[in-house]
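Posting this for the archive.
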Amino acid sequence: METPAISSTPIAGVYTWRMPQHSESRVVPYDADLMFAIVADVERYPEFLPWVVSLRVLSRVKDEGKDIIVAEMQVGFSALRERYTSRIVMDPAARRIDVRQVHGVFRELDNSWRFTPEGKGCRIDFYVAFEFRSRLLSAIAGSGMSLAVSTMTHAFEERARKLGLKEAPQKT
């Protein structure tokens, strides 16, 4: 039987395990469909996302208007490299992307993206919860999770800025 990791959330004087999670909501000056397309374009992640070393699509199907991709991603920092496989469900009509690990370094990994038009831009709602199989990796990642997630979400926004600049001359 595994001993749960300790969190700082006391319940009746007893400390309990809580999986690290992060959520953020922000309004960006980019179209919701553009932001959806950037996050959905998983094959391009190694080009602009920090720590993504490689990505390989293992399968791709369409089901009731949703694109479902199974992809293996290698992430790394310095000499540390890990691979995991995720099932990515993309719903363009709802502008929603849900990701769940199916195999790999995490005991559990879930994340979701929602893109809602707002004014001349869109609101991005992002949520991630994860637990590494290794308690050591969980402790290390949990301590810097907010910074890491913020760095990655900014990378998507920067990608939109660059793509928007490239597309602008074609629209005139």
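The chain has a mean pLDDT of 81. The first strand starts at residue 10 and ends at 11.
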